[in-house]
Write a structure and sequence with these properties.
Blueprint (H helix, E strand, L loop, with lengths): L1 E3 L12 E6 L18 E3 L27 E2 L16 H16 L8 H16 L19 H6 L6 E9 L9 H8 L1 H7 L5 E8 L4 E9 L9 E5 L4 E4 L2 E3 L17 E3 L2 E4 L5 E11 L7 E4 L11 E6 L8 E11 L5 E12 L6 H8 L7
Parallel strand pairs: 4-8, 9-17
Antiparallel strand pairs: 1-3, 2-5, 5-7, 6-7, 8-12, 10-11, 12-15, 13-16, 14-15, 16-17
């Protein structure tokens, strides 16, 4: 998830592999464990993995008669295939994020040498100390800065910044794509990866006992997302969406329904707006082709104010059906950085894979070590 410049997300041990996120999609106080900020913000997050790839895009239009209404950005007309595992986690992570961003309809992110240095240094620190999360302890091997804003700030001047990181036993990662996939499937972390940054740097380090994958994000120019734009995932018309996800993320989407923690649930839906904006009065509806309503637990800026401000998510309680088209409707209000309000009433569809669960769900079902968020 995202965090403001003055805020770092706490991460907790969840299994033998640990995933941590601080990011730019939420908002809240400086001592909170999650969230995203709007000005001079930092983001950190980790997420899940997608084994199914999108194959076609058909944009579903929504009826927004008023030009003042918030609208979904249009996905790419030509889908970019997600990378296969090359054995190089840094290269695969870069390719994966930019393919996803391009498919969603966002700008791709060029590499930044300073961000790559900060990211690689932190990944090395985590492996050297068999640690996880965003913080470092002075005096430990490889120490370069106590927190992401210190490390990133030392490498350049960024108006917004963020970090996502996952670490743990090598057995938690099946190949060189699974770290970035793990980050993306987890909804709070996905929000950071789809935020309106302008550059990134990917770092990776591993030895026989520990593995760490880190991405630092930054912005050095004005936002590219318009004040009324909304970014949805799964994106409108997406095909091959995973049916399920293993709910072990921190921040915890099921904090109010703990019986679903560490269980296989439906694939999360996220929606977000530009830095500096806020979302309110949000309502999610997910419906299957046959008209069946799919219950999901929503996390919004109102239910999780310490974690979210310009983003929200809804996670189905049960896995979705395979090869099924679902319709999502989200209503509410977007308040932009100029305090202008825009009604939200967007509708889109996506279709699940014939057989495909997220990387995390596969791990949860096979008793492999789980990444910790």
């Amino acid at each position: 998830m995202r965090f403001s410049r003055f805020r770092i997300e706490a991460v907790a041990l969840f299994a033998t592999a640990l995933l941590a996120a601080c990011g730019g999609g939420g908002g809240g106080s400086s001592d909170s464990s999650g969230g995203s900020g709007s000005s001079a913000a930092n983001n950190s997050s980790n997420g899940g993995s997608n084994t199914a790839q999108a194959t076609t895009t058909t944009t579903t239009t929504q009826s927004n008669a008023a030009t003042n209404s918030a609208i979904l950005i249009v996905p790419a007309s030509q889908i970019t295939a997600l990378p296969g595992a090359s054995g190089n986690a840094s290269a695969d992570g870069t390719a994966y994020i930019n393919a996803m961003r391009k498919n969603v309809g966002l700008a791709t992110l060029p590499g930044n040498a300073g961000l790559a240095t900060a990211s690689g240094d932190h990944a090395t620190y985590l492996v050297d100390n068999q640690a996880y999360g965003h913080t470092e302890t002075a005096g430990n091997p490889g120490f370069t800065g106590v927190d992401p804003q210190t490390r990133i700030g030392a490498e350049g001047s960024f108006t917004m910044m963020g970090e996502v990181v996952v670490a743990g036993q090598p057995a938690a990662f099946s190949d060189s794509v699974s770290p970035v996939e793990t980050l993306f499937d987890a909804p709070f972390h996905r929000i950071v990866m789809l935020d309106d940054f302008t550059s990134m740097g990917v770092g990776y380090m591993a030895n026989a006992n520990w593995e760490a994958f880190n991405i630092d994000f930054g912005s050095t120019s004005a936002d590219t997302l318009s004040a009324t734009s909304l970014v949805a995932y799964p994106y409108p018309g997406e095909q091959g969406v995973p049916t399920s996800w293993f709910a072990n993320e921190d921040p915890n989407p099921f904090a109010s329904a703990t019986q679903y923690e560490m269980t296989t649930v439906g694939y999360p839906v996220t929606i977000q707006s530009a830095f500096g904006s806020t979302l309110s009065s949000l309502q999610f509806t997910i419906t299957a082709t046959n008209g069946t309503n799919i219950p999901c637990l929503a996390s919004t800026p109102q239910t999780m104010p310490s974690e979210l401000s310009n983003a929200a998510l809804c996670v189905p309680y049960s896995p979705l059906a395979a090869s099924t088209t679902y319709t999502v409707q989200v209503t509410g209000t977007l308040t932009d950085a100029s305090n202008q309000t825009h009604p939200i009433n967007v509708l889109w569809t996506f279709t699940t894979a014939a057989s495909g669960v997220s990387h995390n769900a596969v791990q949860g079902l096979s008793n492999r070590p789980l990444p910790k968020f």
